[in-house]
Amino acid sequence: MLVIKNLSKKYKNSDRFSIQDLSLTVNDGEIFGFLGKNGAGKSTTIKCITGIIPFEKGEVIVCGHDIKKDSIAAKSNIGYVPDDHAVYDSLTGREYATFMGNVYGVKQDLLEMRIKMFAARFSMTHALDKQIRSYSHGMKQKICIIAALIHNPKLWVLDEPLVGLDPQSIAEIKDYMVEHKKKGNAVLFSSHNIDMVEKLCDRVAIINNGHLLEIIDVKQFQKSGKSLEEHFLRLTQSR
Length: 239
What we know:
This protein is an alpha/beta fold and 239 residues long. Helix content is 38%, strand content 24%. The protein has helices spanning 42-49, 71-75, 93-103, 108-121, 137-149, 167-182, 194-200, 218-223, 228-237; strands spanning 2-9, 19-26, 30-35, 57-62, 65-66, 78-81, 155-159, 186-190, 203-208, 211-217. Strand 4 (57-62) and strand 5 form a beta hairpin. It starts with a strand and ends with a helix.
C-alpha cells in the first residue's frame, strides 16, 4: 500500500534534517500509528507522503506509484485529513465535499450517494447546507474527513485527527478507521494519544528528531505485558 525508502527532508534555512533516512511500509488491511513528540517529524513525513512538500532524498510509493514520478496516480489513492482542517469557509459542507469529489473525478450520482452516506455516518446531515464558517471545530474536522473519503481512497492518512473532538465524534471516526481497514485498505495516522493508538493500531512507528526509532507489532508487544506509553517515554526521553 505505502512504501517509504530512505526519506530525508530538510527545510530551507534549517541546519538539520526534519526527517532523515526514514524507511517503513504500511500494508493493505492495516491501521498504522505514528507516534512522536512535538517536532519529531510526524507531520513533515505525512506531508511528504501526500506530496504537499518536496523532499531531498528517498522514495514514496503509494499503490505502486512513485509520488515524484507519477504524482497524480499516487495522490488519487490517498485521502488526507490535515491537522488544521483547512477548508473553504465560504462554502457549505455539501459544496466542499462536491468540489473535492469533482477534483477526484467521482461520477455525480456516486458522489451524491457518498455525501449522503458519510454525512449520516458522521452525524453531519443537519449541517451539510450550512456554511463551513459556522461549523464547530469537530464539524470542520468531520467535513474534512468526508472530503478525504469521497473518492474511496486506498490509503487514508490523518494527522492528529481526534484532537479537540467529543467522545461521540471520536467513536465515529475510530469505527470508520476499522471499517476502512476491513475493506482491505490502509490507515496511517499520527497521534499523541498512546492508549488509543495501542487499542486501534496493528503496528506503530516511533519517531524522534527525524529518525525512526522502532516499529512495533502491537499484538506481540502486548504479550510482553509492558506499557506502550512507558516504552515510548523511555525510548524518546534521552534522545
